Amino acid sequence: MSVHPLLHLLRKDWHLVGVPVMAYAIAGAAAVILLGLQNQAAFYAGTVLLITVLVTLGVHPATATVVSERKDQTIAFTMSLPISAADYLRSKLAFNLLAYFVPWGVLLLATCALFAWQDNLPDGLIPLVLILFGALAMNAVLILSAALLTESMETTIATMAVCNLAFHGVLFGAANMSAIGPTLHAPHPVWSPAVFAFLGTYALVIAASLALVTWRHARKTDFL
User: Fold this and answer.
1) Position 224 in a domain
2) Which of 22, 51, 81, 196 has the highest CB neighbour count under 10 A?
3) From CA 59, how far away is CA 62, in angstroms rounded?
4) Three-state DSSP class for residue 180
5) Membrane-spanning regions, if any (predicted)?
């Protein structure tokens, strides 16, 4: 099929959340700058802001481009295009994953580079940074999956609440693990098996979530 109808969908979604996504990316960059200031209050503020940005970035596009499309009854525009249910799913996955993972990847690289180059920040924190960024990425995919599977604002919000609670559990648990906690102030990253266990779990959950969404939508013959 022609690529143009899918481009219409991508442009529509960008029109809905493109400006907020760019604003979140700018706020994330400001958070990384705060992390680099040799000030404890600035470091704390940067940490809170960075987490808030990545949480919001994982929620806003999914709710605006998937759930609100049903709620606001703008699905009629999509149904008027010569596309299949599979094409619709591909466009939603492509847009939302790019909208999240492009800023996420840039902020992850910037944060890791900051810890690697700043003498006042221990490199031992880099594995924890990866664990926390990975948890937030997994949460974003789970929220998007809930939105695509249920198209329900209530279920999506409930998923968001559970994911945010789980994130704080990961933060506390990882920082206090015997294999990770004592290494956080090390002058170099310590890549213990526990770190790879966290990252491997995230990868499996993300893959399973996307596979479930794809399988579920493969059984649909229309958008309703």
Assistant:
1) no
2) 51
3) 6
4) coil
5) 14-35, 97-118, 124-149, 156-175, 195-215
Chain segment 116-151, per-residue pLDDT in tens:
999 888 999 999 999 999 999 999 999 999 999 998
Does any domain span residue 60? yes
Residues 184, 214: Cα–Cα separation, whole Å: 39
How many angstroms separate the CA atoms of 28 and 48, rounded?
10
DSSP character for 81? S
Instruction: Look up residue 202 and give its amino acid.
Output: Y
The token pair at 91 is 């466009």
In a domain, residue 164? The reply is yes
End-to-end distance of the chain based on CA atoms, in angstroms? 21
Q: Give the pLDDT confidence of 51-90 residue by residue, as tens digits.
A: 999 999 999 999 999 988 766 555 555 555 656 777 888 8
Enclosing domain of residue 198: 4-218
Taking the C-alpha atoms of residue 210 and residue 137, their distance in angstroms, rounded to an integer, is 13
The CA–CA distances, whole Å, from 157 to 70, 95, 152, 219 equal: 15, 20, 9, 25
* Number of domains, the chain: 1
Cβ atoms within 10 Å of 38's Cβ, excluding its own: 10
Note whether residue 223 is domain-resident: no
